[in-house]
Write a structure and sequence with these properties.
Length: about 160
């Protein structure tokens, strides 16, 4: 989260947050985010959101936000959605849209839409009793395009 926050504070969104794009320092004390091939400028010099064709050409990506699937301009909240899916994956939560490799992008989009509309039933199984998982979900879900995320809230 701190690595993503640093990217955002520099005015960029990463747009490809997934576990393999994080690396540990040799002493295991720092986490770095890598692979900025899809990163885009998100804030101008006055820290105002830039709204310039930031739509992705999507490949089948497990951790993409629903906004990416819907071709909605991406912002800081979308990096947080991707991180949220990574966390669920680390917590061994079954991401339904990941079950079949042959799903089309439309099928993945439809499954994610259903899961995000009813997370208690369709998203959380192993994590259903972890209040932090729910709180982070509902917090990210309320974020608007131009909102500055409260990273400390998520950390807490």
């Amino acid at each position: 989260l701190e690595a993503i926050e640093e990217v955002h504070n520099r005015g960029f969104i990463h747009r490809d947050v997934k576990a393999s794009n994080f690396v540990l320092s040799q002493d295991y004390k720092e986490v770095f985010i890598v692979d900025f091939g899809l990163a885009k400028k998100h804030l101008d010099n006055n820290k105002n959101p830039v709204n310039k064709d930031q739509k992705l050409t999507l490949e089948e990506r497990i951790f993409a936000s629903l906004n990416a699937h819907n071709n909605i301009d991406l912002s800081r909240r979308d990096d947080l959605w991707s991180l949220y899916f990574v966390i669920l994956d680390f917590l061994e939560e079954k991401l339904v849209w990941r079950e079949v490799k042959e799903y089309t992008m439309d099928e993945v989009k439809d499954i994610k839409t259903r899961c995000l509309k009813a997370p208690e039933r369709l998203l959380w199984d192993k994590t259903k009793n972890i209040i932090e998982v729910k709180n982070i979900f509902y917090y990210i879900n309320r974020l608007k395009y131009s909102d500055q995320p409260n990273y400390q809230y998520i950390k807490d």
